[in-house]
Amino acid sequence: MCHPRLSRQALPGASAHPAATLPGSLMDVYLIDGTYELFRHYFGAPSVLDREGHERGAVVGVLASVLGLIESGATHLGVATDHVVESFRNDLWSGYKTGEGLEPVLWEQFHPLEEALSDMGVVVWPMVELEADDALASAAARAAADPDAQRIFICTPDKDLAQCVFGTRVVQLDRRKREVRDEAGVVAKFGVMPASIPDWLALVGDAADGFPGVPGWGSKSASTVLARYHHLEGIPPDPETWEVQVRGARRLADSLREHWEHALLFRHLATLRTDEALFEHVSELRWRGPSERFAEHARRLGAPQLAERAGRAAERAV
After folding, report:
1. 179-181 and 170-174 strand pairing
2. Is 121 left (phi over 0), alpha (psi -120 to 50) or beta?
């Protein structure tokens, strides 16, 4: 589990890039969900064909987006990606998400994105045994332990990552909506503290990840009970002793007892790993400009303007 006060706050101003509106960005750390960004730009960015005729619109969109963050003042950042579709969780639950149904044109842009980001000088964590979410959780925990990190922004709206929010220092940033969610924001959205998010997901399920939760439990009942008892083990087996009012408490208690082993498994699936040694010090995440290869890479992608933007940003970063 990541860690655990929990407001969802809109970023001030109308800037297209949130870093420009956030104070103290010099040593702020931005941890970006590359897989989410690739999906977002695949369905939202215009088509771009590279020299070989391959679709690379999503790759170009993500590169432009990350550059926009840098141009707005972000100096320390890393991008986590799913280098393969499946992870260790598929061995634990047969229904866990797979690559089935993933559009080939989208999947074919995963590895090119990793290469392009690396040539652009961005730290990339391509995950194989673990998932991109685990890399973000590990990076957030490691950055939070570093006194040189002022604030850590986990750039994804994924509810799984809400478990990593801590106070107002480790927060989620939805770059599309330009919204920050701190601890108070997690409580406002889910009704529980960040440390209870895996338990909440175990009860209500997560369709995106492919596990159904415990029959009968919904978001309201799970939030009400876990706000008082925090974790599955803390829920009294006798609903007559519950110190909260929940409709159908007897039915819920019976269902949890009947599906107890599945509930523990689902919590295990929802719990992100935080022990990957991705870096030693946040200084390793400082962006120092693109490599010499990036100009050619950008031309090959059919987007030479990216190299021009990266060059200008590097001059300002010196």
Report:
1. antiparallel
2. left
